[in-house]
Amino acid sequence: MDDGDLERFMAEEGLPDSFRRTAELVCEPLAARAQRRRIDRKRCAVIGLCGAQGSGKSTVAAYVVRLLEARGLRAVAPSLDDFYMTHEARQRLAREVHPLLATRGPPGTHDVGMASAAIDQLRSKGKAVLPRFDKAADTRAPRAAWPTVATPVDVILLEGWCVGAVAQGAAALATPVNALERDEDAAGVWRTYVNDQLDGPYQELFGKLHDLILLAAPSFEVVAGWRAEQEAKLRAKDAGGMSEAEIARFVAHYERLTRWILAEMPARAAWTVSLDANRSPFE
After folding, report:
1. 77 and which of 23, 70, 133, 157 could share a cystine (Cβ 3.0–4.6 Å)?
2. Would you list the DSSP string of 112-179?
3. Could you write out the DSSP letters of every residue in 4-65?
4. Which residues contact 187 (CB under 8 A, 6 or more apart)?
5. Are 149 and 38 in contact (CB under 8 A)?
6. Residue 129 has what pLDDT?
7. Has residue 283 got a pLDDT over 80?
8. For all residues of the chain together, what is the average pLDDT?
9. Both ends of the chain: CA-CA distance in Å?
10. What's the pLDDT at 154?
């Protein structure tokens, strides 16, 4: 792709000029890595892209797909977010297991079986139908809105905030990390369920990855700030957006695993991209 292609992508996505640095230092090397994986394997390569909320992983994945397509490869970037359980299914979990499972996001609130089947379909000859999740409605979009992809594809870039994560040891769950855990999960039922799900079904899904890339935020506090920025922009556009109190409670659901990923995953990931507070990668 030439500079004109990058310009068009940035215009389409409404990206700042600083994305040029991300394109050069992250997207282009990631596309080259994925292409090498595809060549070495002589079949579909599955790359995991992990990054906290607001880290820019969806944008990175979208541009990497463009780069790979320009090289003649068929590539897709499904988001783990599109495999959230329906609103009704999470309400049932909230009643039967713990009320905090009504909030989408942590492990245990995705349909991991559906995600695993989608990866398998994308690697098999024929076609795959990929789900879409409507976050405004807090449930899956109608099936008519789900895209169909001709398969097999050459590269699958699975992106998500906890892609490739591993469970914590049981002892780590004993101490709450924030007020949400202290006040609403005093017995540790919710965090134990989340950890057990991550240690079981999610590892079956993540076992399909051939490479794991981490976009590492400087700290959880920065991640919380990124989310606040996103919500402030929505409020400015009269497009909803959570209040500061709502944001604080929402991100608290993600705090334990986000901190654990930032501490543990760099030692395992094939490539860790360190980001600054402005989401810009270090060289």
Report:
1. 157
2. HHHHHHHHHHHHSSEEEE---EETTTTEEPPGGGS-EEEE--SEEEEEETTTT--PPPGGGGSS-SSH
3. HHHHHHHHHHT--TTHHHHIIIIIHHHHHHHHHHHHHHTS-EEEEEEE-TTSSHHHHHHHHH
4. none
5. no
6. 96
7. no
8. 94
9. 22
10. 98
Return the pLDDT at 238: 61
**Cα–Cα dist 149/129, whole Å:** 6
Exposed/middle/buried for 129, CB within 10 Å: 0-12, 13-18, 19+?
exposed
Correct CATH for 3-274 of 3.30.70.1280, 3.30.1360.20, 3.40.50.300, 2.40.10.120: 3.40.50.300
- The count of residues in the chain is 283
For 155-170, the pLDDT digits (tens) are 999 999 999 999 999 9
Q: How far apart are CA 60 and CA 28, in angstroms?
A: 10
Helix (H, G, I), strand (E, B) or coil at 272: strand
236 pLDDT exceeds 80? Answer: no
pTM for this predicted structure: 0.94
Q: Could you give the C-alpha distances from 201 to 3, 165, 237, 257, in angstroms and in order? A: 42, 12, 39, 16
